[in-house]
Design brief:
Blueprint: H1 8-17, H2 23-50, E1 65-75, E2 78-87, H3 105-116, H4 121-132, H5 138-145, H6 148-156, E3 163-178, E4 181-193, E5 199-207, H7 212-224, E6 229-235, H8 241-248, E7 253-256, H9 258-266, H10 271-285, H11 290-304, H12 310-317, H13 319-322, H14 330-336, H15 340-353, H16 362-377, H17 387-397, H18 399-402
Parallel strand pairs: 3-6, 6-7
Antiparallel strand pairs: 1-2, 3-4, 4-5
Helix pairs in contact: 3-16, 4-5, 7-8, 9-12, 10-11, 15-16
Pfam families: Transposase_mut (PF00872)
Keywords: DNA recombination, DNA-binding, Transposable element, Transposition
InterPro entries: Transposase_mutator (IPR001207)
C-alpha cells in the first residue's frame, strides 16, 4: 500500500469482500475496519507489556499471554465487540481501551484534535504509528474527519440574531487542488458582535478568489438566516463590496479598515521619510472630526503630495468609506476602524495550515478552518470592554433600529 493510502483496486476489493451496496453497508465496513485498528493497538500494547512480540519463541519469558476477554465498547460508529488480551500475571493495563472504560469515541476525537492542530492526514498516520505502533492510513483519517461535515453544515446554516451592531468581513487565501490544477481559493470569514457585546464567527465560506459577487451571495445567506439589520460593517478595500452591502443592508454604515489603508499608503514611502510621513498621517486619522481630518489631509498633500502622490490618492478616492468613524465617539471608533479582530483569527488559521501548502479539496480546507474556529472561539468568553457605555451610545444613535431587539 503506497504511502498507506488505499488504492482504487483495494477500494474495489473492500466493496466486493464486504458486499457493499448501501450507505449502511459502508458504515458497517468502516466499523469493522475501526475494530481491526483498535484490536491491533491492543495487541501492540500487550507486546510492550510482555517485552516481546507474539509468536517470538526465542525470548526468555517471565509472563505469558493468557487468551482474551470479550468487551463491548461504544464508538461514534456504534457498539463494537473487541477481544482484550490477557496475561498470566495480570500486569496488562491497556491504555487505548482502559479497564472499565466503555466509550472509545475519544480515539476518533484524538485524531480530529490532531487534524485541528494543522497536522496532515499523513502526519497523523505517523503520529498514531509512533504512539501505538499501528498504521492508521491517511484515508482512514480523512473518513474520520469527514464525520465533521454534517456538523459544519449545521453550524453554517444555524439561525443568527436579528441585529448585530458590528460585523467584520474579510477573506484569507489558500491553494486548493481542483481537477488536477492548483488554484487560489478564498475563505470568506464574517465575525459579528451582538447586543451583548460578544463576538461570534457567523460563517466561513470557501469560494472563488475574493469578489463582490461572492460577498453578495454570503450577505443574502445572512439575511435568510435571520439577520435583519447590521449597524456598522468594517471591511477591507475590495472593489464593489460597498455596493454588495448596500444591496442587502441599505441602512448600514460601511467603514473601510483604516489599518489596511495605512499599510497600502506607507508602502509607497521611502525608508528615510517613513517616520516623518507616518507621524504626519496620524494627524489625519486621529482627528477629532471629519472636518479637521480633511484639513490635515490637505496639509499632508501640500507637504508630501508631489513626492508621494500614490500614497494619498486612494484617501481622496475612498473618503466616503474611510470617514464614517469620525462621526462616532472614541469607544465605538476603536471597534469599527479596523478589521483586526478578523486578522487575529486569520493568524490562528495560518498557524494550523502552515504545514499544508496545498489542500486536496475545498472540504478538507473547510474542515480544518472549522476546527480552528471552534478552538479559537472557545476563548471568546468576555464581551467588549465598556460595552454598557457603548450600547447606550448606540441606542441613542440608532434608537428605532435597536430598541425593538432589546429585552
Amino acid at each position: 500500500m503506497a504511502n498507506n493510502l488505499i488504492t482504487k483496486e483495494q477500494a474495489q476489493s473492500i466493496i466486493e469482500n464486504n458486499d457493499i451496496k448501501t450507505p449502511q453497508d459502508i458504515m458497517g465496513a468502516l466499523k469493522n475496519m475501526f475494530k481491526d485498528v483498535i484490536q491491533e493497538m491492543l495487541e501492540n500494547e500487550m507486546d510492550e507489556t510482555l517485552g516481546y512480540e507474539r509468536y517470538d519463541h526465542d525470548q526468555p519469558k517471565s509472563n505469558y499471554r493468557n487468551g482474551y476477554s470479550q468487551k463491548k465498547v461504544r464508538s461514534s460508529l456504534g457498539e463494537i465487540d473487541i477481544d482484550v488480551p490477557r496475561d498470566r500475571n495480570a500486569d496488562f493495563e491497556p491504555k487505548i481501551v482502559p479497564k472499565r472504560k466503555k466509550d472509545i469515541s475519544d480515539i476518533e476525537k484524538q485524531i480530529i484534535s490532531l487534524y485541528a492542530r494543522g497536522m496532515s492526514t499523513r502526519d497523523i498516520h505517523e503520529q498514531m504509528n509512533e504512539l501505538y505502533g499501528i498504521n492508521v492510513s491517511a484515508d482512514m483519517v480523512s473518513r474520520i474527519t469527514d464525520k465533521l461535515i454534517p456538523t459544519i453544515k449545521e453550524w453554517q446554516g444555524r439561525p443568527l440574531e436579528p441585529i448585530y451592531p458590528f460585523v467584520f468581513m474579510d477573506a484569507i487565501h489558500f491553494k486548493v487542488r481542483t481537477e488536477g490544477r492548483v488554484i487560489n481559493r478564498a475563505a470568506y470569514v464574517i465575525i459579528g458582535v451582538n447586543l451583548d457585546g460578544m463576538k461570534d464567527v457567523l460563517g466561513i465560506w470557501i469560494g472563488e478568489n475574493e469578489s463582490s459577487k461572492f460577498w453578495l451571495n454570503i450577505l443574502n445567506q445572512l439575511s435568510s438566516r435571520g439577520v435583519k439589520d447590521v449597524l456598522i460593517f468594517s471591511v477591507d478595500g475590495l472593489s464593489g463590496i460597498k455596493e454588495a452591502i448596500q444591496t442587502v443592508y441599505p441602512q448600514a454604515e460601511i467603514q473601510r479598515c483604516i489599518i489596511h489603508q495605512l499599510r497600502n499608503s506607507f508602502k509607497f514611502v521611502s525608508y528615510k521619510d517613513y517616520k516623518e510621513f507616518t507621524r504626519d498621517f496620524k494627524e489625519v486619522y486621529r482627528a477629532s472630526s471629519e472636518d479637521l481630518a480633511l484639513l490635515k489631509l490637505d496639509e499632508l498633500e501640500d507637504k508630501w503630495g508631489t513626492k508621494y502622490p500614490h500614497a494619498l490618492t486612494s484617501w481622496r478616492k475612498n473618503w466616503d468609506v474611510l470617514c464614517p468613524f469620525f462621526k462616532f465617539p472614541d469607544d465605538i471608533r476603536r471597534i469599527m476602524y479596523t478589521t483586526n479582530v478578523i486578522e487575529n483569527l486569520n493568524r490562528q488559521y495560518r498557524k494550523v495550515t502552515k504545514s499544508k501548502c496545498i489542500f486536496p479539496t475545498d472540504t478538507s480546507l473547510q474542515k480544518m478552518l472549522f476546527l480552528a474556529t471552534d478552538k479559537a472561539t472557545k476563548k471568546w468568553t468576555q464581551r467588549y470592554r465598556g460595552w454598557d457605555k457603548i450600547l447606550n451610545q448606540l441606542t441613542i444613535l440608532y434608537n428605532e433600529r435597536i430598541t425593538p431587539y432589546i429585552g
